[in-house]
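=== RUN LOG ===
request id: a7f3
mode: sequence -> structure
chains: 1
length: 204
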Amino acid sequence: MTLDTTGRPVGAGSAPVTRERLFEAAIEVITERGYDRATMEDIATKAGVARRTAFNHFPAKSDIAVEWAVRRAHDAFGLARHKRTGTDRVRAYFHELAAMNERNWEQTRQLTRGLLRSYGSPSHRPHMPQELRDWLEETAHAWPGSSLPEGMTYPTLLTEMLYDIYQGALLRRIGDDLKPGSFIREVDAGVSLVLARSLGSSTQ
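=== RESULT ===
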């Protein structure tokens, strides 16, 4: 029987299990060594799999950063969905996203740098915008009458503005050692301000 570097039989476990091992190993290695210094070989070794296996699951290191961002967004949506109103869910989504990222700040810094290196801006932005727009549609009874660019709606524009608040705060602080709660408070305040100015009394 051939064993891998962790003592497990080669081929043991399903592909999803192997992918999860690789993902967890990648997050640990990238957080410890930094995104630029971490290699796919380091990650494969940490996960106890062949380098080729690592590339089969994640053809590029940037794919790991994208999956990290998507998982963060998914987890934040899961925590926000139980809120009563659409506006409360939107607020909760950005609050929970900020809280998760502040709680694991070095991890956030390194994976965000990976996204920036690869794509120029954090790429979790477009993954779940429709649900945010739906929540905003629940709340607003009327939208302003001024013209918008072709193909743009007010819920879409407002969703983009809210992501700008969150990502702007993240990028401003990415080089900082945070005081506890400071990133969360900045995101909460910015999101509340934009919602209040955009939706008026319906946000109360």
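=== NOTES ===
The chain has two domains: 15-59, 62-203.
The first helix runs from residue 15 to 33.
=== END ===
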